[in-house]
Specification:
The complex is a heterodimer of chains A (about 260) and B (about 775).
Chain A lengths: L4 E3 L4 H10 L3 E4 L5 H6 L7 E4 L9 E4 L2 E5 L4 H6 L1 H6 L1 H8 L4 H6 L2 H7 L6 H7 L3 E4 L3 E3 H4 E3 L2 E2 L7 E7 L3 E8 L6 E10 L2 E7 L6 E2 L1 H9 L3 H4 L17 H17 L3
Parallel strand pairs in A: 1-3, 2-3
Antiparallel strand pairs in A: 4-5, 5-10, 6-7, 6-10, 8-9, 11-12, 12-13, 13-14
Chain B lengths: L14 H5 L15 E7 L5 E7 L1 H4 L4 E6 H6 L31 E2 L5 E7 L2 H9 L2 E6 L6 H5 L18 E2 L3 H8 L4 E9 L11 E7 L2 E5 L6 H12 L6 E4 L15 H13 L3 E4 L2 H7 L6 E9 L5 E11 L10 H7 L12 E8 L14 H19 L3 H8 L8 E2 L5 E2 L4 H11 L5 H10 L3 E10 L7 E8 L5 E5 L8 H13 L6 E4 L18 H28 L7 E3 L2 E4 L2 E4 H8 L13 E8 L9 E11 L4 E12 L6 H21 L29 E5 L17 H17 L14 H16 L1
Parallel strand pairs in B: 1-12, 10-11, 14-15, 20-21, 27-28
Antiparallel strand pairs in B: 1-5, 2-4, 2-6, 3-5, 7-15, 8-13, 9-10, 9-12, 13-14, 16-17, 18-26, 19-20, 19-25, 22-23, 23-24, 26-27
Classes of the chains: A alpha+beta (about 260), B alpha+beta (about 775).
């Protein structure tokens, strides 16, 4: 890796200022994607701004009807947190399926979402639960957050502070792991929220998306049978050596059915 | 023999050292004043090199020197060439391309070295390497095995005019067709034996130092002697004793780490050139594009059976993708490695075999755990399943009718191998019983209730072991009565520190904890050291030690007799004590005395230090064999396979340490399952390696496997004194066949008879869809 200047700002405001004043700066949370990229010399930022020392953007709390998870909360903390397990067990389960234990103890929800890997798990959870990203500048609905392949609605010096999850009635995540990387070949998050049923898919397309046809069908009849004939269009899906687009389209339906069936 | 004797499950004494960070790996070695090497590797699969501009790199911060293949050639450095030669039936020789240590005017695979940058730090060397400007003129590339053999494929070695190195045949096909014509049933299979990237845990590394007109190089190898000889002769133009290769602890060999890789030549030459130590630490990406790959065959085969389900003839056509150059053993693997055992455990007299080793724009392939034998056994087991299908006989029954029976041993195969022993029917009985094969249908029905398709599969295998036919082992008994083993073998995971100590305790009565092992240093190891590969160490190293120990006892007897004032003929030795009548002396006392001239009888040299140079007939092997049974459940909606049960019955001959042999079985099985289930190596049409990292290349993980029940059906080998057979490669031979058999059994309702490895969810699901569509049509 190339040399870089290393910063550990003590506040989000300081971090944002550093981002603004250093042209080739990169923000770092868990570093689970960024560090391998640097080691492989695929990126050479001038400055690394590590959020590790920023207080108050870590941890889980309840705020009325919402669960608030700080951006720097690790996957392991989300997976093990008693509040998450009680209020959104589907999200706790999702966090426990990310990577391996080492990754789960370093990687963070903010970092994962900001990176917007098309096969990451959190995009399905945040979109599926209708979460809201809170940044240093504004609030962004998860539906508007994931724009494309490794692309989000974040502006250059915008930093995720936390994610607010409306507490759902029920939710569940189903994932088919990639045989090599362990990422989601397809991951489907189904939630019954106060605002209606949501079905969000990761891994299958360039970024997480909702399946409105399934949502409508499940709103009328929350059963696996109700969606068994609903198939997403393979033409819009990823096609690679590990999974054809046709296969992914099929798996979206299978996993959505299984998620619904898990409601019992 | 107590808790440390032969056959005891002794815990590995090396583990504490290795697991607490006290190992001594190549990357632990650093020298004052060393420079770091980084290689410029080709991003092109096939291209002419028009020019190499090193000026920007030379001017970069910290860069000490930049060299290309031309610089080495100008210094008289030679080329690498495969060890093997084959002829076709007409007597025409195989094409044997020469490989420069760094390629000069053409690149033939992605990752091939074009230049080396030496700098004060590794980061500076890597940054410098990015500044070397190579002007490539791209040529059409050949990435796939089938395409390499096709007549319309680009030719990557123009001087040969074809990508096929030789068309080797064991005999004219017509001779066997005469037998095949009499068959009642003929079955044909077409199978791909997928290319795998071996990926030892330790990436390659080398530290070379030129000092006092001698080269010392540290590198992970599987022995070092042959690498020493190659470096001395081809690269350094020195007598071999002026080159020292040291491989202390090594993080995995698997066959591919025993080779003279070009990187070793470059750092060796470079340290002398610049007069400073040179260190190279390869990363995982370099492992993928520069360590030799394994397997990569396409097989077409036909089996003819009579009315009783007995095989009357076998024909096999193999294309093996050897990559851009024939590596040391490349074309040998299907022909000598696997080919001569293709009939496997089966009694098949009439066998035609055709092999085309092809060159392509891919990383060269060479020995990898099993080295041709897993491919051969897999092919036979797929044929047997197809034969069961065609004849209506059960899968075990078709095998029972064709295996070589114990009363046929020693059995001379029609390829000339002499199988001394093995209980092939017994292996099947034991494995099927342990797997409750008889109760399987009830379990299948239970799975079906849950929407899952359950399958069971078995495979037999035999795999000639022994490798190179010579080895030398030395035992030194110190004046303190401790033993030091100077091994020609090399342990890089096999647990020799433990097993050799067990043998010494057994043979000489020297306590287990008083035995130490010295290996992996060409300056100290026995002259005729060969190394560890080909499941050979228990035989070549173990018997070598046994005979060295015998010499220790013989010499000790003379000294003991002198000490006890007894006739040597009256002296007996047992458990570390020499006795004559009522007097006795311990081996430790004899050892101490042996270093004092006054105690020595006439004609006896001081010291108690003996070695044995073991030679065997190069055509003589031992024959580890076994039956593995796997039970799986397939989720038909996802195509996902879950392994439920694994029974491994292995005949490794006399088991020296069951704990360690179990480890060998587990490791081999994991690699076999990896090949069968997850390990997919993909080159695209441009010759780019698509699966060049662990993000895309599926290494087997613990969760892919079930528990493995490893059982022994111990039939002592008749051709060596210890009765041992190899163990290291058995798992990799048994697992793929049993796995694919089990999955196809689960899917038999769809009429699926074969799916090519690796059986990823996508492939299984696609096979189910195709089968459904075919049924509907």
């Amino acid at each position: 890796m190339e040399n870089f200047a290393y910063h550990t700002p003590a506040s989000v405001a300081d971090a944002a200022k550093l981002l603004e004043t250093h042209e080739d700066a990169k923000l770092m949370s868990g570093g689970m994607t960024l560090l391998p990229t640097l080691k492989q010399r695929l990126a050479a930022p001038s400055d690394l701004i590590d959020l590790a020392k920023v207080p108050d953007i870590k941890g889980v709390c309840r705020d009325g009807d919402e669960l608030v998870i700080g951006a720097m909360t690790t996957h392991a903390e989300v997976h093990e947190n008693a509040l998450v397990r009680e209020l959104i067990p589907g999200l706790a389960s999702l966090a426990g399926q990310i990577g391996d234990p080492a990754v789960r103890h370093r990687g963070t929800i903010g970092g994962s979402c900001a990176n917007a890997d098309p096969a990451a798990d959190y995009p399905a959870g945040t979109v599926g639960l209708g979460a809201t990203f809170v940044t240093n500048k504004r609030k962004i609905a998860a539906d508007d957050f994931f724009v494309g392949l490794f692309e989000t609605a974040l502006e250059p010096s915008e930093i995720i502070v936390g994610v607010r999850f409306p507490i759902p009635v029920w939710s569940h995540y189903q994932k088919l792991r990639h045989p090599a990387s362990g990422y989601a070949v397809v991951g489907v998050f189904v939630a019954q929220t106060k605002a209606g049923v949501r079905v969000a898919v990761t891994g299958a397309g360039p970024s997480a998306f909702r399946v409105s046809e399934m949502e409508a069908a499940l709103s009328k009849d929350f059963s696996a049978k109700a969606i068994e004939n609903i198939k997403v269009d393979a033409a819009d899906l990823n096609n690679d050596i590990h999974a054809s687009a046709d296969y992914r389209a099929h798996v979206v339906t299978v996993l959505a059915k299984r998620a619904v069936a898990a409601r019992g | 023999m107590g808790q440390y004797g032969i056959g005891q499950p002794v815990r590995r004494k090396e583990d504490v050292r290795l697991l607490t960070g006290k190992g001594s790996y190549t990357d632990d070695v650093n020298f004052d004043g060393q420079v770091w090497a980084a290689f410029v590797r080709s991003p092109q699969a096939h291209a002419k090199i028009l020019s190499i501009d090193t000026s920007a790199a030379k001017a970069a911060p910290g860069v000490v020197a930049v060299f290309t293949g031309s610089d080495m050639k100008a210094d008289g450095v030679g080329t690498l060439i495969t060890d093997v030669e084959f002829k076709d039936l007409a007597g025409k020789d195989m094409f044997r391309p020469k490989r420069d240590f760094m390629t000069i005017d053409r690149v033939r695979f992605v990752g091939e070295m074009v230049a080396v940058v030496l700098a004060e730090t590794q980061a500076q060397a890597k940054a410098g390497a990015e500044l070397v400007m190579v002007d490539y003129d791209a040529l059409p590339a050949v990435g796939s095995t089938a395409f390499a053999a096709a007549s319309n494929s680009p030719v990557i070695w123009e001087e040969h005019g074809s990508n096929v190195g030789v068309h080797w045949e064991n005999r004219p096909e017509a001779e066997i067709e005469a037998h095949m014509a009499k068959a009642k049933t003929r079955v044909v299979v077409d199978i791909v034996n997928n290319r795998v990237v071996p990926n030892p845990m330790e990436p390659r590394c080398a530290v070379a130092k030129w000092d006092n007109d001698e080269l010392t190089i540290y590198a992970p190898t599987q022995g070092g002697r042959r690498i020493q000889q190659g470096l001395a002769k081809i690269v350094m133009n020195l007598p071999a004793d002026k080159v020292r290769v040291i491989s202390a602890d090594v993080g995995g060999g698997f066959g591919i780490r025993g080779k003279l890789y070009p990187e070793l030549g470059v750092v060796s030459w470079a340290t002398r050139k610049i007069g400073r130590p040179v260190k190279w630490r390869g990363d995982r990406s370099e492992t993928f594009v520069s360590d030799y790959h394994g397997r990569d065959q396409i097989n077409h085969a036909e089996l003819g059976l009579d009315a009783n389900g007995r095989v009357v003839a076998l024909k096999v056509w193999t294309i093996v993708n050897c990559g851009a150059y024939f590596a040391e053993n490349g074309p040998r693997l299907p022909i000598n490695g696997g080919g001569r055992i293709i009939p496997g455990v089966y009694d098949i007299e009439n066998f035609y075999f055709s092999v085309k080793p092809v060159l392509s724009n891919t990383v060269p392939t060479d020995t990898y755990r099993g080295a041709g034998r897993p491919e051969a056994n897999f092919l036979m087991e797929r044929l047997m399943d197809a034969a069961a299908d065609a004849t209506g006989l059960a899968r075990d029954e078709i095998r029972r009718r064709n295996v070589i029976r114990q009363d046929q041993m020693p059995y001379r195969t029609q390829m000339g191998m002499l199988i001394d022993s093995g209980d092939f029917i017994g292996n099947m009985d034991m494995a099927m019983k342990a797997a409750d094969w008889a109760g399987f249908e009830a379990r299948r029905a239970e799975s079906a209730k849950r929407g899952k398709l359950r399958g069971i599969g078995l495979s037999n295998f035999v795999e000639p072991s022994g490798g190179r036919p010579t080895e030398e082992m030395r035992i030194q008994v110190t004046p303190e009565g401790k033993a030091v083993v100077y091994a020609g073998t090399h342990s890089h995971g096999q647990g020799h520190e433990t097993v050799w100590a067990q043998l010494i305790q057994t043979f000489l009565g020297i306590p287990f904890e008083n035995v130490s092992l010295i290996q992996g240093d060409t300056k100290i190891m026995p002259k005729e050291a060969a190394g560890t590969f080909g499941s050979r160490s228990s035989w070549m190293g173990g018997v070598g030690l046994q005979r060295s120990a015998k010499r220790i006892v013989e010499k000790g007897t003379k000294i003991a007799a002198n000490l006890m004032q007894a006739e040597p003929e009256k002296v007996s030795f047992d458990a570390g004590v020499f006795s004559a009548g009522t007097s006795s002396v311990t081996l430790a006392e004899v050892a101490k005395a042996s270093y004092e001239l006054k105690n020595l009888p006439d004609g006896v040299e001081p010291g108690l230090d003996e070695s044995y140079f073991l030679k065997r007939d190069p055509e003589e092997f031992n024959y580890p064999n076994g039956t593995h049974v796997i039970e799986v459940e397939v989720d038909p909606d996802l195509g996902k396979i879950e392994m439920l049960n694994y029974i491994a019955v292995d005949d490794c001959g006399k088991v020296l340490n069951p704990f360690i042999v179990h480890g060998q079985v587990y490791g081999g099985v994991a690699q076999g399952i990896g090949q069968a289930m997850t390990e997919m190596t993909v080159y695209d049409d441009e010759g780019q390696l698509v699966t060049g990292s662990f993000m895309d290349y599926g290494m087997p993980r613990a969760h892919h496997l079930s528990m493995i029940d490893a059982l022994f059906n111990e039939v002592p080998c008749k051709t060596n004194d210890l009765g041992v057979k190899g163990a290291g490669e058995a798992g990799a031979c048994g697992a793929p066949g049993a796995f694919v058999s089990a999955v196809c059994d689960a899917l038999k309702g769809f009429g699926i008879r074969h799916i090519d490895m690796p059986l990823t969810p996508d492939r299984v699901w696609t096979a189910i869809q195709k089968a459904k569509a075919a049924k509907a049509a």
